[in-house]
What we know:
Blueprint: H1 10-32, E1 47-51, E2 76-79, E3 90-94, H2 95-99, E4 116-120, E5 139-142, E6 149-150, E7 154-158, E8 171-176, H3 185-193, E9 199-202, H4 215-219, E10 222-228, H5 239-247, E11 251-255, H6 259-263, E12 272-273, H7 280-289, H8 292-297, E13 305-309, H9 313-323, H10 336-341
Parallel strand pairs: 1-2, 1-3, 3-4, 4-5, 5-6, 8-9, 8-10, 10-11, 11-12
Antiparallel strand pairs: 7-13
Helix pairs in contact: 3-7
The structure holds 2-acetamido-2-deoxy-beta-D-glucopyranose (2 copies).
One 2-acetamido-2-deoxy-beta-D-glucopyranose is lined by residues 291, 293-294.
Amino acid sequence: MGTAGCSPSPRLRALGALAGATLLFTLWLLWQFRPAPVRVPAPPRTLLVLIWHWPFADQPPELPSNTCTRYGVAHCHLSTNHSLLASADAVVFHHRELQTRRAHLPLASRPRGQPWVWASMESPSHTHGLGRLGGIFNWVLSYRRDSDIFVPYGRLEPHEGPAPPLPAKKGVAAWVVSNFQARQRRVQLYRRLAPHLRVDVFGRANGKPLCASCLLPTVARYLFYLSFENSQHRDYITEKFWRNALAAGTVPVVLGPPRANYEAFAPADAFVHVDDFGSAQELASFLAGVNASSYRRYLAWRDRLRVRLFEDWSERFCAICAQYPHLPRGQVYWDLKAWFQA
Length: 342
Ligand SMILES: *[C@@H]1O[C@H](CO)[C@@H](O)[C@H](O)[C@H]1NC(C)=O
Ligand SMILES: *[C@@H]1O[C@H](CO)[C@@H](O)[C@H](O)[C@H]1NC(C)=O
């Protein structure tokens, strides 16, 4: 009892503890909501992409510093200067020149950890020498959807406003072909179609080459265009579909990967697939007998979509920078041949 007067009552002690807790809580709150320090973002580093050999050209094009900004990609420098190998953020090797041995891999002077990109827009049927390229490349740039840098030949994009006018039609079916070989499926199909359907054939194979600017206006006058790929492979849907047919304003009759694969790229009713018919004769009579209302359905996509073509190698290479932050690190294509031929 004698000490009771000196020590604080339990009530007072409780109040003191409460005050302490409140003070701590207030300090914590102040700390939580302290003004964020002003962070000056580091200026984005410009990436250097070295193109070891320009595709299909011994003389690379001019690559002004705004090459990639024209395609909406900033901080990306493309160069073909081999002296920059040591400082390149990625080096691109286009397959054709490796295949023909016009270009050689600088394996001995490859900086440690430098990402190397294998690039090709050709199908596996026209790609050779992959067996010796295993364990070298980190990223693939191609038309295959599962590429690290996916660069389709074309794409449909949302579009508002009136569709471009349709040219007047003067014939049923056109085909442009420069490489005509009996073993190709497209040639076999054409030969089975021709007895039942008039197909106007243009191109070098037929002695009727079309100048670059004549092709689209010429094929646009037909209801259908034979978008027959030179070989049939997953995702291999080329300018024969995007440019010669869809962009021209004619309906593609496709021979390529299965229908479901095309439907990953375009509306199901934007094209005629040869697999939808039991025979070439059935296909021919369908094409010849189409009426105005069913034909119009094939063009309905034009009211809401438009074709965007990707034809420029610079644009494809700039895409490496656009995707650079998300590209997988430390990945190696140990068996590039198996991957590409799968
Ligand atoms: C290539 O790069 C080197 C090193 O930066 C430079 O000295 C040389 O002038 C460049 N060559 C060309 C053709 O631009
Ligand atoms: C047009 O063709 C479609 C499909 O073959 C058919 O269903 C439709 O009745 C035809 N329309 C006219 C007006 O002939």
